[in-house]
Amino acid sequence: MSVFDRLRASLARTRETFTARIEQALRQPPGPEFYEELEAVLVQGDVGIPTTEHIIEQLRARRDARDPAAIRTALREILQGLFGEAVPLHLDPAPAVVLVLGVNGAGKTTSIGKLAYRLRAEGRSVLLAAADTFRAAAIDQLVIWGNRVGVEVVKHAPGADPAAVVYDAVQAMKARGIDVLIVDTAGRLHTKVNLMEELKKISRVIARELPSAPVERLLVLDASTGQNAIQQARRFHEAVDVTGLILAKLDGSAKGGAVLAIGRELGLPVKLVGTGEEPDDLQPFEPRSYVDVLLPEIPGVVGDQ
């Protein structure tokens, strides 16, 4: 299955509701009723008011959009413009570090396992660090995923210093010539000050021990939570210099429209999306493919299975 087909399958629930309603609105001639209907669809599709207003304003300003076909083309271009170009992971030259952030329950550990699987499939050697020591379950879950995808996990006892775990993982990485270290971090957003200090300490260890290594700080968001995911991202970004986003559970969400707001309001690139439950169901995010799935060039394609 191609990346496009995986993305299309994962957005099935969104296409059944959100996309189908956009298609219905586009059958109307441009006018006040059309714009009111489109605005309602976008807001109810969890795009959010600021991004909805931006889309409507941009569409109204398109003087060339005078019939349904032209409006479809203009709307596709506007949606594409919310993202810009695809931004790949920055992991070269090796060794590189990926700090994975996110609240508990967002799909963080699962995303780490899938990312490790993907990087190994690319021919990179990978090591995992269980630095979410606050929860014993988090360590256990990471070990399960490590065993599943064939990647070793560096861990300490529950309650240990997360920075000490990362230090040991970095030493193991250097000794074995590992390409990528993926670090699971705590997800206690309600204790933001402590979390920020914890992450700063981890970052200092990495900067000291691997001064020239590329470091990705990826925030995992649960796509099914829509606008709530955007609020989480804002709070994390205030505490940490996030470099990109992973959208997990996209396949279980009918709120795929929130991806549009994420693209515009956060100013952070979506780098990876979770498209299913299997280890290989983590794909690079392609904005053009997302728009093609959400609003195909040819009307009527949306309902096809």
Low-confidence stretches: 301-305
Q: Shape, please?
A: elongated
Query: How many strands appear in the DSSP assignment?
Result: 8
Can you count the helices?
12
**Largest sheet, strands/sense/barrel:** 8 strands, mixed
Mean pLDDT reading: 85
Q: Class by helix and strand content? A: alpha/beta
Taking Cα atoms only, what radius of gyration do you get, to the nearest Å?
Answer: 21 Å
First CA to last CA: what distance? 14 Å
- State the helical fraction: 40-55%
In percent terms, what proportion of residues is strand? Answer: 5-15%
Placed side by side, the strands forming the largest sheet appear as: 3-2-4-1-5-6-7-8
Write the H/E string, N to C.
HHHHHEHEHEHEHEHEHEEH
Give an account of the 3D structure.
With 305 residues, this protein is α/β, with parallel strands linked by helices. 50% of the residues lie in helices and 13% in strands. The chain contains 12 helices and 8 strands. The protein has helices at 3-10, 12-26, 32-44, 49-60, 68-81, 108-121, 136-149, 162-176, 192-209, 227-239, 258-265, 287-294, and strands at 96-101, 126-130, 153-154, 180-184, 215-222, 244-248, 270-274, 282-284. It has an 8-stranded mixed beta sheet with strand order 3-2-4-1-5-6-7-8, sandwiched between helices. Helix 11 (258-265) links the parallel strand 6 (244-248) and strand 7 (270-274). Helix 2 packs antiparallel against helix 3 (32-44), helix 3 runs antiparallel to helix 4 and helix 6 (108-121) runs parallel beside helix 7 (136-149). The chain is elongated. The two termini are 14 Å apart.
